[in-house]
Write a structure and sequence with these properties.
Blueprint (H helix, E strand, L loop, with lengths): L4 H6 L20 H7 L5 H5 L2 H15 L3 E3 L6 H5 L4 E4 L3 E4 L5 H5 L11 H13 L5 E7 L1 H10 L7 H9 L1 H25 L3 E6 L7 H22 L4 E6 L6 H7 L4 E3 L6 H7 L5 E6 L1 H6 L1 H15 L4 E5 L9 H12 L1
Parallel strand pairs: 1-4, 4-5, 5-6, 6-7, 7-8, 8-9
Antiparallel strand pairs: 2-3
Helix pairs in contact: 4-7, 8-9, 8-10, 9-10, 10-11, 13-15
Bound molecules: coproporphyrinogen III (CP3).
Length: 341
Amino acid sequence: MTEKLFLKACNGEVLATPPLWLMRQAGRYLPEYREIRSTAKGFLDFCYSPKLATEVTLQPIRRFGFDAAILFSDILVVPDALGQNVSFIEGEGPKLEPISSEAELNKLEDQIDLNKLAPVFETIDRVKSQLPKTTALIGFCGAPWTVASYMIAGHGTADQAPARLFAYRFPHVFQRLIDKLVVASLLYLNAQIEAGVEAVQIFDSWAGVLPREEFLRWCYEPVCKMVAALKQAHPHIKVIAFPRQATSHLSMMAQTCGADVLGLDTSVDVVWAAQNVQNHITVQGNLDPLVLLAGGDRLKSQVMSIKTALQARPYIFNLGHGILPQTPVAHVEQLVKLVRS
Ligand code: CP3
């Protein structure tokens, strides 16, 4: 039996105190992160430095004693290891050489280069040897649709219009990209699992921008296929699916996709989720990152509403999206007390 609260909740146990971790918990809101970040050249070099990546993975665990650590890396290392040109520009975010035609898609490597990602697996090994025995380690990747949306646009957009247009105009070409990402992401996650992560989260940050038919084809089918393949290769691995803002599909996904946990974004009504999602599966979420930034009475009352709505069934306390860089560390300390009291 595991002593790890996080894994117990993934297994469907109802706990007196929910396990707690935060998406993007290793990041710029921590002064010790900013200090190390300033010593690395580019963001990808940082992700590919086992020494630095191990240190920043452990920082939030030391400070807050979260129940799970998440590997420090990025979802865009997959396009990087497929041969696409990826960089991160200070203050602007990711920049990729955009894919706007089948010819450009054909320029990618046939297979993901796992040698390029070897430093990530070394980070996992190092983190594992230093984590408290009650803390779980989560690996991750982006879902094919979300990663493809950056590969096509070449940068972040508000509505993923470039990828949606590409998929409407050239569905067969887009299917090839999605299929390629399913294979690449599975190789990457399986290697993370072999290196020692105990759970994996599939981030589909942009699942919510698609109409039903496209959601089923580009998000639901590829992610469920990945879940099945992961479970087949590693029956004990815990899988968290996070189809952000795809609320109208959550209940169906909880019942049919085979994941162990479903992430709820900030917009999901937890009272509804308790009756329609959590009756089938462990849920994770969904404090508004902005309420954590704001603090005060609303932070207290929102934490209480989430706990009250979800406490009768298995859940993991988290934000509804990543922590914001401006978040005061004191508010995170307060959150830890509120969740555990
Ligand atoms: O959660 C963690 O602490 C682990 C590390 C992690 C990062 N990115 C580090 C990071 C994880 C799990 C991610 C996931 C990720 N990356 C997603 C999915 C989740 C989400 O937020 O929707 C996406 C879409 C990306 C792509 C990405 N990486 C963008 C759009 C950006 C720029 C925006 C920003 O926040 O600056 C990044 C950069 C990035 N990835 C940073 C960190 C800590 C900030 C860059 C820096 O420190 O210089």
